[in-house]
Amino acid sequence: MENRHLSSALGEFIKSRRYRLQPEDAGIKPFPGRRRTPGLRREEVAYLANVSVTYYTWLEQGRERNPSPEILSHISQALQLDADERKHLFDLAAPSQVSFSMTQRPEKPDTGLLQNLVDQMRYPSFIANEVADMIVWNRGAELVVADFGRLPESERNMVTLLFLDPEYPKRLVNWEEFARYMTALIRAGFDSNKDNPQYMERYERLRRNSEDFIRLWEWHEIRQKSTVPVHYRLPDGQMLEFTIHCAAAIDNDPGLHWCFFVPTPGSGTEERLALLLTQDSESSPSS
Known about the structure:
The protein is an alpha+beta fold. It has 2 domains: 2-95, lambda repressor-like DNA-binding domains (434 Repressor (Amino-terminal Domain), Orthogonal Bundle), CATH 1.10.260.40; 111-283, Beta-Lactamase (2-Layer Sandwich). It contains 14 helices and 5 strands. The chain has a 5-stranded antiparallel sheet with strand order 2-1-5-4-3. Helix 3 crosses helix 4 (53-61), helix 3 (42-49) crosses helix 5 (69-78) and helix 5 packs antiparallel against helix 6 (83-93).
């Protein structure tokens, strides 16, 4: 049952990649015949990948479940997949025998230890779980990203802020770029998290309440965890530019991710952040 489901996911993925390519993009002349769908036809992908049309059709239909690495490489080249998409293709073809949601994890994170970790950072920093819920965060994150402590616990989630909070897009200058990246991350992990009720609950809430999420989801983009720029405008008009770096499996928990907001060199963010933190410290009541 699991193999069939994941094979179907593989088929849907390569079909979406086929639709985005035109024959001229792939360096071939269009095959004769009327085109009923956008992008390449199955026959054209099979030709480019050096596989039979029947075999490629079975892959898209989920009837072929054990493609070899060589065939996957040929298909990734034919569909012009980038590094993230290629990894996603291979992950779909050879899923882990135990899903992430079923792996052994600590019952509850040690928030005292995690809070101590992020408090050592001067740059904005937080630790989130696999569904982007905030576990702990430092003062820099409160001043720049969001005042998580003032939010209801159910709303302390980066994706919820991004798509469902009407004020957050006004603060995040490159909202579209970051929202596109986050949607592509969700797509990359979607099939391996379908058995995670919390993950699916978040996904369904976005589908019901965010037209922007639906719009970006239908682009079928895939991204793995990587660096991404974020630009914030503070209430006083200051611009702060960062690159987010994330580390995984914090405190031996594969579901925890530690994110650091590193100032963009030459943007003046390092200096403005230092001043912001100093002013905040001086204005805070002494303990």
